[in-house]
Amino acid sequence: xxxxxxxxIIRKCSxxxxxxxxxxxxxxxxxxxxxxxxxxxxxxxSLFPGTRTVIVIGFPISLPIIDxxxxxWYHELYRVVNDMLDSCGYRLAMFLTEKGxxxxxxxxxxxxxxxxxxxxxxxFFSHRHAAFCAGLGNFGENNMLLTPQxxxxxxxASLFSTAELPGDPVLDDPLCIHCKRCVSICPxxxxxxxxxxxxLTDKHACAARSEKLKRRxxxxxxxxxxxxxxxxxxxxxxxxxxxxxxxxxxxxEPYRRxxxxxxxxxxx
Length: 268
Known about the structure:
alpha+beta; 6 strands
């Protein structure tokens, strides 16, 4: 029955055009794969007692749009993808609950505003770690969750379900190639380099930059995400040659023109 239900969930996700879905047994949070790990209060069974499986869904951020970041174009894409995640997460939780498996959706962020994030730069649940446990990817230099399909250019939401479902294997082979592009491009030096979890992103510096960009309708930043060479999306959009991000390379000129044009309109 659990295998049949899993297939039904995957079909439901397909009907909502959700390209990424993964399953993680809730007890994976109780066996830390590395340290520091998710504290007990932040784990699925603590937030929704009776959780047997965490279902993680993901939508990609279109690479050509994020290449203009920070921009109004990426700002609007980010908002739309967030709305889709929340809507699909809620619908999927209701789908399972109505089948007799009480389930709840966890919003894609879990904090009220950038101001709140500056004071306490942690949400009540980490979708990055959920996606890791669900086999969707693993961590990179910028502390983001990298996926084979889209690198770090993905947004996630999660569901806690009482349904006991087969889990996906954790992705063991590291995706990050440690090229340090995310380290060098960060405008506030928030990415220290050295890999996760040994070196953690300066969340306060990142949040402070997001606050400034928000006033200009340009948040989020997105710089460390767009320059990551990992992801099949780079081939899909014919952007495999990373010299496009080198300022002195002739390959960068058309992309700079697009970026300059987009940044000149729709924001402060």
